[in-house]
Amino acid sequence: MGVSNKYRTFTSLMEDVSIDFSTYALEGMIEPAQLIKVATRVNYDLGLRIHRTKEVVIDIEHGRGQLPMDFAFLNYAFLCGEYKINATMPSGTHVETVNDVPYVPSPTGVGICETAQTCKDVCVIKTCNETNSHQLVHKIGPNQFRTYSTFMQLRIQDVNTTTCFCPTLGAQAADIAEVVDGFLNTSFRSGKVYLSYQGAMESADGDLLVLDQPYCNEYYEYALKQRILENMVWQGENVSQQLGLVEGRLRAARNNALSFVNTPNFAEMRKVWTMNRRAQYHNYYNMFLTQVWTMNRRAQYHNYYNMFLTHPPVNPRVIGNGALSTASTNSAS
Predict the structure, then answer these.
(1) What is the pTM of this model?
(2) What DSSP letter does each residue of 169-209 carry, written as one string?
């Protein structure tokens, strides 16, 4: 997605707003507790594209596994099957060769093959062979990785639409999973489940996070300023002129922020182009191989190509004036 990965806390956002409204802040007219819901509403308005996509492998014991603390929305889930354990034992001196020329990936962001060098805890990589397969690498120790090569689909059912946006919702699979109160309930007793989910907009300390980008920063700040002035109006302060100015700026800032967040990157635009090309492929390149054209051609075949190959007369005989006489005409006469 074409969205910045930088975030900042709600406390940092309030500091910028307090600097702009320094007079109101000194008079004690700004209450951060009243503005947390405004920042949360702006995060919801910007959509799921601002959330971080995270991956994790959870343990299922007695048909139940605990979801991560920052779990917000589920993308998809798979049951992990066969795996191999790769352990690196400490040894002597190692000699490494470093290439000074950095590798530049393709514009799509995907190279010929991927490795696990940048893998932190859990990641999915593409193998460098002709099978074009994928592997799941799970770090279970300082020098130990667990590589899964087989996966089984899970059917997610009985979930709220605000919790799961996964394509496996209602899929035809033997194994069933359900998201309930921070846990994943499964139909099997034990195993490993790989989850791809959207993380909550919270820091490790539990503070609210907001997107740190110039267009989005204006949207956050003007939304907080509009609520501050609105509360002051209810307190009897004469700030109607300032409120009208801020509301006009807020609409423009919201349009700019939504335009930035919803702008697709190069990979997404290439994906749409590929889908459109495949959808229109048969209309142009295979227009003579479609089923409808073949059926019409077969239906009209005997009317044109076989019009001179009709059944010949039985026992033809030449009579006067060059006319033909058949056995059927003689019998009728």
Answers:
(1) 0.66
(2) BT---SEEEEEETTEEEESSSSEEEEEEEEEPSB-TTS-BE
